[in-house]
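Fold this complex.
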Amino acid sequence: MYVVIEGIDTAGKSTQLDILKEKHKEAVFTKEPGGTQIGLKLRQMALNGEAKSKIAEMFLFLADRAEHIEEVVKPNKSSIVISDRSIISGIAYASNLPLEVVVSLNLIATDNVLPSHVVLLELTKEELIRRLGNKENDSIESRGIEYLIDIQDRMKKTVKMLNLNHRFIDASLSIEEIAKEIEEFINE
Amino acid sequence: MYVVIEGIDTAGKSTQLDILKEKHKEAVFTKEPGGTQIGLKLRQMALNGEAKSKIAEMFLFLADRAEHIEEVVKPNKSSIVISDRSIISGIAYASNLPLEVVVSLNLIATDNVLPSHVVLLELTKEELIRRLGNKENDSIESRGIEYLIDIQDRMKKTVKMLNLNHRFIDASLSIEEIAKEIEEFINE
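Structure:
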């Protein structure tokens, strides 16, 4: 089982991942980017803006993804892998190339290994504005509300396009309600 | 003008590049991988075997290539750029995926910017055996004669497939003869 938790920043992924860690001691918890040794370096290079070219930056994330799938997901997915982000964020954030190109690049990186369960924590624009007001902005968040809502739309499109087993969950529900929905979905 | 010097190890690229550096003080000399700051890091990560996944390793080289094209080749090709290796080596060495896939990935990395002049220093198998006998083997060379001859074939196929303006030069000619051929080709 390969479960991924997706959502734009402030959607509440970390909170739900903490709850999952308590409940699923048997699972391998991981993340993209940065779920491997080389992935940590690549993530840092990308965050530092070391790649001036946007295409080069995308290839850094694809290298991270390829290594993560090969070294973490494939060896563990016969039991349970739970990942903070995945190919879905990868596709959603790479908006500098046509969608079909980005999708094929990502399928090469993942060797066609796809999540068995996608949880997407979904925010309305109003709720996003409220939450961003309560949090110090990082570089992605500072690109603005419209940008993040657009990314969220791309995430949803990606899930549907790849025909993935998914649950879109209203992120404004209580922490407990969301946790319950996720648990039901995983145990279905 | 975007000139690239290609050839397998021991073909004599460095010697010819040294001669070109003497003759063309106006040119920007560069290389792949490692022609940019981030490229140097990525090259080192690849050489150290930090990417366990072969696909991840390929993406490291693609990131290097994308950055190199954007930061070094594009800004200078209206004058003269001379590069030690290029997309041709990139395609020839990536033998873990179908050729047409590797070609499209590399064209994305180079944003379709291709060399205006390709010099390929070509070795016969006999000459390669002789030269390797005289040199300490590095990791690529130790993979053997057949491997290197196969890479050289892939380089030639790539040049033809991309329909690049090229000169295949017999690497067993004297250093001066080769230098003269290269000079003629560049000045054509």
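Chain A has a mean pLDDT of 94.
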